[in-house]
Amino acid sequence: MGIEVRNIKKVFNKKTVLRDINFELEAGKIYGLLGRNGAGKSTLLSIIANRIFSDSGEVLLDGESVFENDNALGNMYLMSERNLYPEGMKIEAIFKNTELLYGAFDLGYAQELADKFGLDTSQKFGKLSTGYRSIFKLIIALAVPAKYIFLDEPILGLDANHRELFYRELVDNYVKTQKTFLISTHLIEEITNILEHVFIIDQGEIVVDGDVEAILDKAYLIAGPKEDVDNYCQGLNIIGQENLGSIHGNYIYGSLDDKRILPDTVSIERMDLQKLFVNLTNISVKGGASK
Amino acid sequence: MHFNFNSAEPIYLQVASQIEEAIFTKNYSEKEQIPSTTEISRDFHINPATVLKGINLLVTSGLIEKKRGIGMFVAQGAYEKVVIKRRELFFEDKIVQVVAEAKRLQISEDELIDLIKRGF
Description:
The structure holds 2 protein chains of 2 kinds.
Chain A: E1 2-12, E2 15-26, E3 30-35, H1 41-48, E4 56-61, E5 64-65, H2 70-74, E6 76-79, H3 91-101, H4 107-117, H5 130-143, E7 148-152, H6 160-177, E8 180-185, H7 188-191, E9 197-202, E10 205-211, H8 212-216, E11 219-225, H9 226-232, E12 238-244, E13 247-253, E14 267-270, H10 273-280
Chain B: H1 11-24, E1 33-34, H2 37-44, H3 48-60, E2 64-67, E3 71-74, H4 78-104, H5 109-119
C-alpha cells in the first residue's frame, strides 16, 4: 500500500528539472518535501498528481500506474500555488462544486474550518488576499475525501496565528483520517516536529530520504579551535563550516567514529533540520549528502 | 502544560522528560489523567507517532498507565519512582558539573561546602 515514484525525469526547455527521482510513500504518514526555490518540488508534486507528464519514469498507487487511472486520481489531491478557480466565483459555490466533483467532500467540515480561519464564504475567490487564497485552498485539501494529500507551499502568505491554526488542524485531521500527507515547504523550522519522514531535493535530485529522527541522529556540529576540529573531522562527511572569531565549526552529516578521542577543547552539538537543510543545499559547499 | 522544546535532544525524549517533570513538580498528581497523544500532538505540533514513542517510554518505566478507551493516567507510586531516579542521577547530573565549574573558578572544596551550606 502506498505510492511509488520511479525514475522520474523531466526536462523543461532543455533544462533538466528532475534527474532521476525515486522514493516511496507509505500510507498513513506525514512526509515533508524540502527544497530551495527552483529545486523541482512543484514539478515533482504535479507529476505525482498527474497534472503534468514526466519525460520518463512512472508513479504507482498501490501498484497501479496513476496515468489515466480515474480511481488513482480520485485518491490523490494536490493543493498547488496555482489558482485554478474562477475569480468571480463565490467561495461557497466552489465548496458546493467540489462536493459535486468529489462525492464525499465534507461540506460541514469545510464550513467549520472557514469559520475558524475567519474566511467569509460569501466572498468571491478573486477578492481574497494571498493569505486567504492559501487558507481557502487548504480548507478544500483538508475536506476532500482523497487518501493522499499533497500540499505545495501550504502556508504561503499566512500570518503566524493562521499558521498555528493550520498546524493544529492538520494534526487533528491526520489523527482522525490517517491520510497520507506530502508537504512541500521552505519554512522548515515550524513544521519539523510534525513530519515523520523527509525528502530533501536539490537541483533535481533527492539528496536525503529518511525518518526525521534518524536523519537528525546523524547531523552534528563539531566546534572548537580550527586545528583540533579539523583533526577530529578527518575523513568524516563535512557538509558546511562556520567561524565565530577563533572558534571554528564543522557541520557533519553521517555517523561519527566512536573510537576517535574527543579533545577537551572540542564539543559535539546537534544540528536541527533547518541547519542541516541549509548546509546540504548550499551550492558553495563541496561535500555532499551521503544516503 | 508548558512544553519548551529545543533541538538538542530527540523530540520523543523531550516529550517523556517534560511529562516526567510535570509529575515531579506535582503538576500531574498520581491517578490523574494526562492529555491524550492527540491533544499533545495538536497543541505542540508534534507528529502523533513521536508523542506516542515518548509516552511509551513512560509506560515502560511504570510512570504512566494506559486505560483502554478511557485515557492515560499517572501511575500510583510514579512520583516516588521519579524521585528515586533523580536521586541516583543527582551526583552525575548536578554535583559533577558544580565541582568542575568551582575548579575553573578556583573555588576550594571548603569554600564550596560553605556556599552549599549558605544555599540550604
